[in-house]
Amino acid sequence: MNLSPHLSLAEFTMTGHRSLDNTLPTALMPEAERTAQLLERVRSALGDKPILVTSGYRSPAVNAAVGSGPGSDHPKAAALDFHCPGFGSAYEVAKHLEPLVDQLGIGQLIYEQTWVHISTRMQAKAVNRVLTMRNGNYTPGVNL
Fold this sequence. Notes:
Elements: E1 2-4, E2 7-8, H1 9-13, H2 29-45, E3 52-55, H3 60-65, E4 79-83, H4 90-97, H5 101-104, E5 108-111, E6 116-119, E7 130-134, E8 137-140
Parallel strand pairs: 5-7
Antiparallel strand pairs: 1-2, 3-4, 4-6, 5-6, 7-8
């Protein structure tokens, strides 16, 4: 089953933690489809280059296993992590998307060094909308 033209449900829910159930609850399907549509807009902004999703939906158990906190948008089916080698490095992707967050409807953009995180959920504080994660710390903007 596809959530959008370039994202399948299997890709959105894949995990390396195969011993943990990562089935998307039916109630979260509308949010998963909304996140998939965001990915389509991002893909278009990146010149329609293939996007490799490394993490989409995470059940609460999977989210805990990867060390993410309860405030994560992944268990809400509202986020995904990806890279786009055909466009460039994660930094180049994040830097390109940074001025487009409003236009694309990105609620949060995080440059995570080897991948990019996007979320549909708008952040309560504007300073948390575009971030760089380095050594466990967040700083505003996309920075090397």
